[in-house]
Design goal:
The complex is a heterotrimer of chains A (277), B (444) and C (315).
Chain A (H helix, E strand, L loop, with lengths): L1 H34 L3 H6 L12 H9 L2 H32 L5 H10 L5 H14 L6 H25 L3 H9 L4 H30 L2 H6 L8 H6 L9 H35 L1
Chain B lengths: L7 H21 L9 E6 L18 H13 L2 E6 L5 H11 L6 E5 L2 H4 L14 H4 L31 E5 H7 L11 H13 L3 E4 L4 H15 L2 H9 L7 H11 L15 H6 L3 E6 L4 H8 L3 E4 L15 E2 L3 E5 L6 H11 L2 H10 L22 H10 L4 E2 L1 H4 L2 H15 L5 H19 L2
Parallel strand pairs in B: 1-2, 1-3, 5-6, 8-10
Antiparallel strand pairs in B: 3-9, 4-6, 4-7
Chain C lengths: L2 H8 L5 H43 L2 E3 L4 E3 L3 H8 L2 H31 L5 H8 L1 H4 L2 H11 L5 H8 L13 H30 L2 H9 L4 H12 L1 H17 L2 H7 L11 H11 L3 H32 L3
Antiparallel strand pairs in C: 1-2
Helix pairs in contact in C: 2-15, 3-15, 4-9, 4-12, 7-13, 9-12, 10-11, 12-15, 14-15
Classes of the chains: A mainly alpha (277), B alpha/beta (444), C mainly alpha (315).
Amino acid sequence: MRSATARMGRLAITLALTIVAISAVYPLLFMLITSLKSHGDYIRSPISLPAHWTNLDNYTAMFNRFDVGRLYANSVIYVAAAWLICLAVSLPAAFAFAKLEFPGRRLLFVALICSLAIPTVTFIIPDYVLLADLGIIDSPISVILLWSATGTPGTVFLLAAFMRSLPSEVIDAAAVDGAGYFQTMRRVILPMSLPAIVTVTIFDVTGWWNDLLTPLVFLQSESQATITLGVATIVTRYQSDLPLLIAGLVMAALPPIAVYVVAQRYIRRGLVLGAVQ
Amino acid sequence: MGTNAYSRRRFLQSMTLAGGALALGACGGGSGSGKGGTLTYWNQFFPTSSSTDKSLKRDDFWVIQSAKRFADANGINVVVTDLPGDDSAFTKFRTAGVARNGPDVASLWSGAYTFGLKSYITPLDKYVDGAYRSTLTGWEVGTEGLVAGKGTLYGIPPANDGIAAVYFDSRVLDRAGAKVSEDTVLEWDQWLEVLRRIKATGVTPLALGNGDYTLFSLFYWIAQVTGGETGLRDLGDGTRKFNDPALQAVVRQWLQLVPYALPNPSTMDDPVAQVGAGKAAVVVQGPWAIAGLRDVLGQNVLMTRLPNINATAPIRDSGIGGPGGDFVVTSYSKHKDEAAAFIKHLTSKTEQLDRIKNHPHEDVKFPNLTGVDLASLFTDPLLVRQAEWVNQKFVFYADNIWPTDLVNEIYAQAQLIWAGKKTPEAFLSALDDKRDSIVKNGSK
Amino acid sequence: MTETVTAGQRVAPGTTPVRRARSRRRRRDTLIGLLSVLPALVLVAALMWYPLVTTVYHGFTDWDGVVTKWVGLDNYRQLFGDGDIWQYLRTNLVFFLSIPVILVISLVVAVLLHEQTPGARFFRSVYYLPCMLSVAVVGLLMRSMFAPDGMANRSLSAVGLGGLATDWLAYTVTSFLVLILAFYWQTLGQGALIFLAGLSAMPSSVVEAAQVDGAGWWRRLFRIVLPMQTPAISYFLVTNTAYVFVGLFSLIFTVTRGGPGSTTVPLDYEIYLSAFQSGDLGYASAVSVVLLVLVSIIAWLQVRNFDLYSRQGGR
């Protein structure tokens, strides 16, 4: 009797999880299908399957229209640089907030967290003026700096939240063993924080990759554009070729998804590693 | 817990690492492009991709080729940057304007949209002589006050977008036994009768895309009873109230369309697609919809002027449309003379005609040239008639006449009244309130 | 957990050599601590706090980007005078009140995935997909799904609930439902990842011990698992609170554009409209200041409460 209920419960859980999973995958299928249609096909019947599954015209058009390799390379470089900077400043800060005692700790932490509450639209103009004065408008540096700065409060917060739950004894033990700051960081803190680092990396990287406003405002020449920015210029005031736009969106979305799927193994390892400690 | 001790040297080492990463990021950045001898144009008006021919490269499009011709002839480097066609382009233009670090030339939406950005735009009067003026039409859309020659000139129209019209699936009209001819303008009752007959065949007649149900139809009918652009201007500056019996009647008539329209602007916002799918038989659109309609209906497209709201309106048998965009020169440009020359080049007769003759895959935009028989440039009868309309009297887009905030309020409120949650009186007086607060705060 | 409390417990006070060692160590901690947080603070201060100072100043001016005119409290008077601010705030509040539900859903899903439900690996990979899509896609999708002839209505009719079919985006209440669904859809993956990371870090012995004790599943969830997840929960709550006050712009912009009417316009969308469409940068600055003060108070309360909670949790 009891096991039957348990089995039913399990079944219900699996069913619920499956429904959520379908709703998560559906948009991608929808996008892939639509991107294979011509504008005419789409106008005739927006929801049918494509007439020819091999119709790659929209993708060809993207390659004709943009230097796609360049757009991808730009996106990858900017995101990677922002990620490096963001982690480089966030890791020590998170560690200090979580595990060290120093005057002003709480105040600075709250101030940093409250920075999450500053809407992008308010600092975009002052920052543009500031960076223009420094002569780094239309330069990737502006986007990289903005991304890493706006990513820092959340990154510090997540890392600190996670590090606080790490057993202090292990860190103390490392200190007793005579390990220096740098060694402790590398041998103890980094490996133990790996699940949190992996998680925050996923959040930051996908957020930056999809960000339109920052590159739109701060980058001007086409050679500097990110893939997300390039795709956004397909829409015109009166008419939008939806299949073409969606093909662009697929092209913008696929690399992070591919990386995510391929990196699953490492992500899982990252998530498990923490538990081993 | 607060007892982790480290040597200071180790700590500083890790700081150096962080600093290194910063420097690395900076190096990866590359150098900002220098601006010496370069003219930058932010384009959101001319296409650089086509929905009908996807094999075209960016260099195949008119605006890119035309810019290159100018560059070659004048020994100056011209950079064309495409902006998104939606509001985000304004965000970018405004931000660049605050920092005085943006393009030399930009294409914006004309009228109020342009005047709202005039802090960042150079008046063009001294760059424009009588000879050049006489070659183009549509000067009013870039002139503050919207009367050509009577105000500061901020923008120069690059083309005419054409006139909003009603497009029918003629097969459905035949099936419904509704008689509509291209040459007559439907009176209101006839219009409702046509819609009723179409609906009786089982097809919902009207597909009105997102916002179009106000943009083209309501705005035009308001203009009809208030006397055209003058009336619209009076409504915009408070000389005339929205909430009066004449406009209440217009709104009530407009709401008679609700039962004949597909519920709420729907799937993917493309009314032409809905007609193509057989879900609707009538759209109200500008001439840019013609290519798509030809694609789904072939020869079975019948185009008429927008119906007349009533027999006594001062404006009848007309339409709403015109040059919805303009070229501007930024106030901070260091190459204003070259920028003005570039605009003159883009709007020259040679270039405008080249666009029509050699770039058939681009969205149709009618040349705004004086002394050119526009109709002779086109073969599709629908485009020929649009070209004729462009040279006749029409009402300029109300959304380019009214303050942008008021237009946004109309869009927002129209959703409510269209869904039956507001009375015409409440709708119109909400517009009066909004307009009054704009006028008040604008002059503080 | 707080370091001071445990430190006080561990080190017996009064013995002079220990105290001297402690004070030396504390000084070193202070220096290292400050230097550790410095780079992060400099970066954030330069690009987020400095603009804030200028925003506060511009809140008292009539500023079009070129000409600045001091107008005192006019912008604030206008903001509170016409009463629109309450409607914008209502939108933010609706989302704010919806956070606890998605918190519980995310937690439950994370725990289920952690307990190796069949297919957990697959689910885990798939759940984050919606978060990787740009808002343009999400907006497009939501609008098509909830169109009058969209998937939602057709599915309802198919299961005999055609009576519930409606024009979702034409009514305020159903518009909010659609928006919150989109919000949940994109947040579930994020929440599940955060809590999975937290659960992974939890010593499995604790959970196993509770299982041996025969504690029921829900009991285990609320008494053992949740208290150990407070840092993750606090992170989830604070970031999502920030999101519903300052991050809604793109979701609203792509799904409802603030409609019907302006009933789903949140404060940050209003800032965008007044700054970039009306060009009233002074007024927009004033709205930003109000928003910032509001969210800071909420964020501070949340951080504080969770610190207290974890102290009581006895860790």
